[in-house]
Design brief:
Blueprint (H helix, E strand, L loop, with lengths): L1 H11 L7 H7 L28 E5 L2 H10 L5 E6 L11 H15 L3 E6 L7 H14 L4 E4 L10 E4 L3 E5 L5 H5 L4 E5 L2 H16 L2 E2 L1
Parallel strand pairs: 2-3, 3-4
Antiparallel strand pairs: 1-7, 2-5, 4-8, 5-6, 6-7
Helix pairs in contact: 3-4
């Protein structure tokens, strides 16, 4: 797990001016950093003595609490990409259904909610499941789209207010959150998410409305 996070940090931290050595030492919780003059690196310092959780690894069912925590802070926008979005009445879907109810509540409070699903013209069981889910989401004021030309939508992302997000392997399905081995990263930094959000906007503009 640490190896995966360290690789991610080594590839991305220089883009945002973080001190890699200090960041890796603190992983998965990273301190706020300030620029230090006369040094090729930046000195990592705590902002008024408080550490900010910029990156945090979550596994399996931890996604539920992490996603609810982020969704609860939404004021303007919620963007979701998922390969599978399952509405289920199974016992193991209780946590997921609570999360979906949270989405409905956010949409009813004028938060702009968009969901990009994997729906292809091949009419597979997964495509039909996602299409049925998408139509239900639309009845709650959520915008739903899919990729054109039978292109597979395999990304798993939750982006909130362009400043918080979760990116990783979790689908919005009971099995993904209760049985599978899944790993995602919670990101609380607008700098990290800027490029990801821009890519989402580009893909969204080229997608088709359900």
């Amino acid at each position: 797990m640490r190896f995966v996070l360290e690789y991610f940090l080594k590839q991305n931290l220089p883009k945002f001016g973080f001190c890699r050595r200090a960041a890796l030492k603190k992983a998965p919780y990273l301190p706020v950093v300030e620029r230090s003059r006369g040094s090729p690196y930046q000195r990592a310092t705590l902002n008024k003595g408080l550490a900010m959780d910029i990156l945090k690894v979550i596994r399996n069912e931890q996604f539920l609490a992490a996603a609810q925590g982020i969704l609860g802070q939404a004021r303007h926008s919620i963007d979701i990409c998922t390969y599978k979005f399952e509405l289920s009445q199974r016992a193991d879907a209780r946590g997921l259904n609570q999360l979906i109810e949270y989405l409905y509540a956010m949409a009813s409070e004028d938060v702009h909610v968009r969901v990009l699903l994997n729906i292809t013209g091949r009419r597979s069981g997964l495509s039909r499941l996602n299409e049925n889910t998408g139509r239900t989401l639309k009845t709650h004021g959520i915008n739903v789209r899919y990729l054109p030309d039978n292109r597979c939508q395999h990304a798993k992302m939750l982006l909130v207010d362009r400043s918080m997000g979760i990116i990783g392997s979790h689908n919005w399905s009971p099995k993904s959150m209760t049985e599978n081995f899944e790993v995602s990263v919670v990101i609380r930094h607008a700098g990290y998410l800027k490029e990801i959000q821009a890519h989402f906007e580009k893909i969204w503009e080229g997608s088709k409305e359900l």
